[in-house]
Amino acid sequence: MHSALVRVQNVFGFFTTVAFVVATIVALSVVVTPQAPSASVKLRNVQVVRGRPHYYSTKREEYAHIKFDLDADLTSLFNWNTKQVFLYLTATYPSLDPREPPSQAIIWDAVLPSLSAPLHHNQYIHPAKNGKASKGKKAPYPPGEIHLAAQRPKYQITDFSGKLQNRTDAVLELGWNVQPWVGALTWVNYQDFGVWKGLNGGKSKVFQFPEIRKRKEADLKTEKGGEGNRGKPA
Amino acid sequence: MLSLSPRQLATQVLNFALVLSTAFMLWKGLSIASNSPSPIVVVLSGSMEPAFARGDLLFLWNRGLDTQIGEVVVYNVKGKDIPIVHRVVRRFGGGSTPLRLLTKGDNNAADDTELYARGQDFLNRKEDVIGSVVGFVPFVGYVTILLSEYPWLKQAMLGLMGVMVVLQRE
């Protein structure tokens, strides 16, 4: 009755019960934590070029290279249950068929770690103020504050139809995915939910994809992210 | 210790079968509620780091057919039975034409075009995707990875459980 085995079992059972209850409380506590994110997105430059989806493909598609300015204050998204915020900027434009919903493609993304997350090579390192290389390990801004000017995109995007030039009514929209330590994943909200205020700003002015013009190779460099897998996708 | 009457033995077997069938019913019930063939999956690769590491448990929901950009979906490559957990980076269609998605792992430099079946450039939401991730518990699923990578562990665990059942009779 009081053997070591029974005691171990009791302790283990108690441990799992407590862990489960604490995890539930932490996961639910996020709902009552206020948030007030704000962001301003501006288009800097957009160019359209012809390219191939992979080196062995025969079809040629039109790719857009979109440079942007981003100023965001997402510090309120980081609470004790936030492990990281996956931030992304999408280009949203109407589909060629007017009955379809708008098409969307991510042009840039960043993994913003919280201060409690362990270091990982895929986390975003914010460039230092004044464009100098970041000195040492001190981040220039607290987690969630972003100030980028003339930022190159990470991805050059194409449309399902392969045609992008001269298409109108495109918009850049900011989005995020909050990854918790435990619980439910949440995405960007433009509406208010209780104490969670919707994103203030976050959409650029409407722009148009220009027509294809010959451009210098250097203009179309993309930003390299911190992803670890550079070869075949895992 | 091993001198069980047939009735006691039958009761033990019945209890064990009851536990197994309850677990099975819970699993299938969750499957139906979430409309996904596999409502709880374990992350197998490091392609979504640092968000999901190997061994994390993911809860899937398959009733949101209008998958938004930025959502994390689990899909099977056409013809293969390997579930892949990646993020949606492009979406097209979704009205009368089927919703087409392009996915990419957070820790992969390239998108998933190379992973898809030959001639397939985009995923079809209805056909290929088995759910999108709504919640997660870290690290708990690592046991299943160990069990599949070290098959002798399965025998060892079953043996251990058998020994425990026998020992607990006294």
SSE blueprint:
The complex is a heterodimer of chains A (234) and B (170).
Chain A: H1 4-29, E1 38-51, E2 61-73, E3 82-93, E4 103-113, E5 145-151, E6 157-158, E7 171-180, E8 183-184, E9 186-187, E10 200-201
Parallel strand pairs in A: 1-10
Antiparallel strand pairs in A: 1-2, 2-5, 2-6, 3-4, 3-7, 7-9
Chain B: H1 6-34, E1 40-42, E2 57-61, E3 72-76, E4 83-92, E5 100-104, E6 123-124, H2 125-128, E7 129-137, H3 142-149, H4 152-167
Antiparallel strand pairs in B: 1-2, 2-7, 3-4, 3-7, 4-5, 5-6
Regarding quaternary structure, what we see is: heterodimer
CATH class bucket of the domain at 38-149 in chain B:
Mainly Beta
Total of domains of chain A: 2
Class computed from helices, strands and strand pairing of chain B: alpha+beta
Mean pLDDT of chain B: 86
Unreliable stretches of chain A (pLDDT < 50, length at least 5) are none
Instruction: Please give the most extensive interface between any two protein chains, plus how many residues each contributes.
Output: A-B, 52 and 44 residues
**Rg calculated over all Cα atoms of chain B:** 21 Å
Second rung of CATH, namely the architecture of the domain at 38-149 in chain B = Ribbon
Strand fraction of chain A equals 25-35%
Helix and strand composition category of chain A: mainly beta
How are the strands of the biggest sheet of chain B laid out side by side? 1-2-7-3-4-5-6
Whole-Å distance between the termini of chain A? Answer: 51 Å
In CATH terms, the superfamily of the domain at 38-149 in chain B is: Umud Fragment, subunit A
Main β-sheet of chain B, in a few words?
Answer: 7 strands, antiparallel
Main sheet makeup of chain A: 5 strands, mixed
String of helices and strands of chain B: HEEEEEEHEHH
Tally of extended strands of chain A? 10
Subcellular location (chain B): Endoplasmic reticulum membrane
Protein name (chain B): Signal peptidase complex catalytic subunit SEC11
Main location (chain B): endoplasmic reticulum
Transmembrane segments (chain B): 12-30, 129-146
